[in-house]
Amino acid sequence: MTAVTDSEASLRLRGARAEGGAEATAKMSAADLSAWFGDKQALRRITLPLIERKVTAIIGPSGCGKSTFIRCMNRMHEVVAGARTTGDVLLDGKSVYGADVDPVRVRRRVGMVFQKPNPFPTMSVRDNVLAGLRLSGIEPPDADALVEEVLVQAALWDEVKDALDRPGGALSGGQQQRLCIARCLALEPEVVLMDEPCSSLDPIATAKIEELIHDLRDRYTIVVVTHSMQQAARVSDYTAFFYVGELVEYDHADVIFTKPSDPRTEDYITGRFG
Amino acid sequence: MTPELESAYSGRKLAARAAKTASSVAVGLALLPLFAVLAYVASQGARALSVAFFTEPIGVRGAGMANAIVGTIELVFLASAMGIPLGIAAGLYLAEYASTPLARAVRFSADVLAGVPSILVGVVVYAVVVVWMKQFSAFAGAAALAIVMLPLVTRTTDELARAVPDSLREAALALGAPRWRTAIFVVLRTAAPGIRSGCLLAVARVSGETAPLLFTAYNSRFFNESLFDPTSTLQVQIFTYTMTPNDDWHAQAWAAALVLVALVVVLNVLARRVLAEREPA
After folding, report:
1. CB A176: neighbour CB atoms within 10 A?
2. Is pLDDT of B161 > 70?
3. What's the structural domain count of chain B?
4. Is residue B9 part of a domain?
5. What is the ipTM of this complex?
6. Contact B176/A105, CB-based, under 8 Å?
7. Which of A265, B149, B175, B195 has CB 3.0 to 4.6 Å from A132, enough for a Cys bridge?
8. Is residue B43 part of a domain?
9. Whole-prediction pTM
10. Does any domain span residue B42?
């Protein structure tokens, strides 16, 4: 337990240093986190803070463990057969891997948006938004207001307000992805994890999602995994560079993209590999 | 186009035309027995149909098969009520917990059960239910039919639930849904249209099953008043009448065959219509 507390302290320190002020705290943090798929190690002892109400981008070449990392944050990693982790993840200073912690509760506080838009095809737009609550056995008292509120937040309301009863799968790819974001926001998560949310979208839809990420950062702690360095530079406050399962560098986004300290980071962001 | 390409192209066109002709002929050949059976049953059965056939119970001249028609419908509903929920639940378990030893055992036994001749199911239900209750009964017949349905429904549900993309399961889990709610409200719901068709096929299949009923529901000349009394069914009555040397009863058997076929068709159409209405807009 002391080890965790120590690394937590160092994380706060590191987060504070990155922020250049005492007010920046880590909403979540990975402490010495390693992850495996069977015998294959996907993450190697990652220690990284996710600063509250900021956007943290995670960049790195394919297979570097970016997605695995965020899936460890809300305990989705263990859903895959044979997957396991060591080390710890803290949410508000408390372990999400503790023996008495129910992963279901963690996932309600730490929402996730996937690479490929995955609205429930059998549900209407409206029911998709409410799906998270209903799947928890909660029938919201004022469903219409909630649906409107989160669809407005997800910048989708104007496009779908007359089509709330249409199936979620009938929307365009970009609209589906914003629907998935709305579905996630309806649960009022504290952290939103986004796994390459724009990789299957065209540039216009991508721009809308990026704008949305910008708008959401005042209310949520956001983590965006991305392949696009430009995207990371545009949307993030902090950027972490992963390479073959290791955290190579973490700093303010502008520092990473202007004067990275590790030569591997520089090679990657200048397009020399990856 | 070069001459070589030209000749290769016309050769391909010829092959395509030949393949298309061959497959059209195959479709025709496959449909032929179906239409032959339907046409023959219709022409033979229509002759013996009368109002009394639908209103009078089994008996001598001037009698009908009203009690057998009711019995068949009763057994199909009862068997579906037992077999479908159990089959869907088992199939969903197989799909969602595929790697557990229990799931492997269930899948294996479903496959074996699907291959068991249905008369054996009848014999087993006789030995277990009928002997125990000291009575042939509609309940025993329905149980036998439910056992015949079970592997069909289970495996259909299993296959279709496994075809639901993992991305939807993950979407639900990431929303904080427990595993069982994910299985029921996301996986089952997404696979529902296919499972419905599978269940309809299973129902249609057991609607005509005769062998499992011979020593379970047995037969009766009267309307079935209790689930725990023997009951008549169209299919067993067809068997019984066909085995007699009586031309009048042969005609009745043809009529029963026609009604049975019509019943299966009506059941299918009705079920499809009811299910279609429940479908979200």
Report:
1. 24
2. yes
3. 1
4. no
5. 0.86
6. yes
7. B175
8. no
9. 0.81
10. no
